[in-house]
Amino acid sequence: MQTYLFDDRNIAWQTVEPLGAQIYVLSVDDARGIVDVLIRFQPNTPGKLHRHLCDFSTFVLQGELQFWRPDGSLKEVRPTGSYVQVAANGEPHLEGAGDQVAIVLFSFRGSIADMILYLDETSDVSIGLGFPDFKATLAHQIATSGTAKIGAHAA
Questions:
Q1: Tens digits of per-residue pLDDT, 134-143?
Q2: Which domain holds residue 30?
Q3: Rounded to an integer, what distance in angstroms lies between the CA atom of residue 60 and that of residue 41?
Q4: Fewest CB within 10 angstroms: 9, 30, 103, 113, which?
Q5: d(CA 25, CA 129)
Q6: Could you tell me the pTM of the whole model?
Q7: Are 33 and 51 in contact (CB under 8 A)?
């Protein structure tokens, strides 16, 4: 089977600590509470336990996106080309790439507050990641010319 890689040479990836991955914010829509973001997961490196507070969709551009339950058991694998819509407030999980870098388009919808809650080892909330964080990341990309090659802009 031939493997194709998403060409991300023109993307200025930003590291976001709670996420455990790198992101590139494509757009932020204040009026509708929508954030479109590329997330790059490193191979075999699950992120932190979290749950989503808003509806979202994913489209896997490269690699596979894997999901684990809080007990560490594998829940789901989404291969390249998978598109899934997910309702808010699903069960807590971890996510990350399989054996190669995964690049995934996430579209978060309907919130201008926290969108993701990261949980500690006792499933208590340790930190939130939300609309203001993605908006600040986009502003940073614009200020540092991280969007110049792709042409993203603030809504």
A1: 999 999 999 9
A2: 21-143
A3: 11
A4: 9
A5: 14
A6: 0.88
A7: no
